[in-house]
């Protein structure tokens, strides 16, 4: 099998650059003449070879979607589905479910063997093979190499990603508890696996998003923080007037509806509404002032009055008495269908963890953080860090089914990305810079809404500042 550098040089020999997605595709297919076939069909004016130039590749989608409600349908995350943790036994089920489901996504592209099988035959010390495992530990050696211990249901092994190999770039982004596949060779003493290629569950490069057959647009916002002295009420009023003058059919709000009570030390001094019920009543009144024709879909965040552990249940009825009847409450995370277009709503607390674990990541790159989630097909890969997770018998944070839109919040900074046909949206916040954010040098992008045409999935950002 050709490595990434050899593939890149083959294209450079013909004065062509090649996209990394194409390099990975060629490695996965392992067809000796595939590069020549691609080059032969590339138009003369091509500079960078992308997935569109791969012969015989047809975009994949799942056909017509039949909906119970042609306008809005909750695919996952309806009220009462988050469940409780019943004991330590659920943790075993949780991680098995994560490994099996994410591992099967990798096996759909490459063949793999159990880690235990490496020790059964000496031939794996001479031949390349692929193993799949969950990352138990990852560290950088004193020589600058990367070592990850991975395990499957049969055994565990340490994998070495050498800094002089092309795979090292991907290896630098390995984080705890993600599921990866590794192609390479076993060391002579059988104690170390030398990596040549890394696979993630990822999205197929020929993925094509589903689009609505009927006209319709959705508005995406998050992090309203009603009750805070930094809530931008005048900007919200302009937003409400704009919605009243529009024909948009949907408004999706991805968490932190209110500022909450006792979320952080000294918060009380920064509140204009110090009663949690009154905060939700004020938020409900704001929603009631919006046109009743708009379907409003609301999920919670870490400032809301639900448990902190994800998945988070819907806002309890005791706090939503003032919410209008056109408001639909869902959990965090949740998948909803809007005219057949799947939207995955996730508040995004795990971005805190990913920024701390991925080199070069920052709060200003919320779009890239959504891409990292999609590549791992998981909303919160690293377990046991800042993001509390309620481990149930199934892992509700796996990104399955694949959405057309991933809608996040939490970081208060706008980010929009399009990764392999999935549109990632973080619309920022409705709160100006807080004292804590100023101390941390976090500069929010407030009073923004992102509008998406459901027939084209083209986003447009509108400012109300």
Notes on the structure:
The structure is a single chain. Helix 6 links the parallel strand 9 (217-221) and strand 10 (250-254). It contains ten helices and 19 strands. It folds into three domains: 4-53, no CATH class; 103-199, Beta Barrel (OB fold (Dihydrolipoamide Acetyltransferase, E2P)), CATH 2.40.50; 217-463, Purple Acid Phosphatase, chain A, domain 2, CATH 3.60.21. The chain is an alpha/beta fold and 465 residues long. The N and C termini lie far apart (54 Å). The strands form four sheets. It has a six-stranded mixed sheet, with helices on one face. A six-stranded mixed sheet has the order 12-11-10-9-18-19, with no helix packed on it. Strands 4-5-6-8-7 form a five-stranded mixed beta barrel.
Please supply descriptive tags for the structure shown above.
Purple Acid Phosphatase, chain A, domain 2; alpha/beta; 465 residues; OB fold (Dihydrolipoamide Acetyltransferase, E2P)
The ordered H/E elements are: HEHHEEHEEEHEEEHEHEEEEHHEEEHEE
What's the CATH class of the largest domain, please?
A: Alpha Beta
CATH topology of the largest domain: Purple Acid Phosphatase, chain A, domain 2
State the shape.
globular
Helix content: 10-25%
On the 0 to 100 scale, the average pLDDT is 90
Number of domains: 3
Which range does the strand content fall in?
A: 15-25%
Distance between the termini: 54 Å
Structural category is alpha/beta
Number of helices: 10
In what order do the strands lie side by side in the largest sheet?
Answer: 3-13-14-15-17-16
